[in-house]
Design a protein that fits this description.
The chain is α+β, with helices and mostly antiparallel strands. It has 3 helices and 8 strands, in the order ββββαββααββ. It has a domain of 55 residues.
Length: 150
Amino acid sequence: MIGEYTCQYIHNSGKICGALCIRPEGCRLHYKAKKRVLCTDCGKPTASACGRCKIYKRGYYVASYYHRLREKTLEQSSCQDIKIDAIKKLSKSLIRDPDRGIHSDSNILKEKILSNYDWQGLEELSNLLNSFTQASIYMSGSYYLTLNII
């Protein structure tokens, strides 16, 4: 009866305990111990979630932090490109009347689009709108745009 299982606990030296036991989890000394796997870089036993020992664990988390930062900046730049594309499509549909300036319906539409998006310091937007319309855009701080129709 005794000795149905062998303890699979890995010591710091890299050897397996190998003691005979009745529990599948391990012997009387190691059955409550954390499950340990070998480090993917050096082969030492470790219980960390990433599968690396404390020497190489820092590099793993630093790399994942840089990856998160890169993904965040790529997301922000793609959002700005989408906003500029939306303004370009809108500007093609605006009607320009030489006698009265911009048609009133297009002003309302433009103000709706500017109020729906959070434009943060887009100088290209100011140049784009000024080239297609007689509107002037003033940056107040780096977070707000105010549209003054001439």
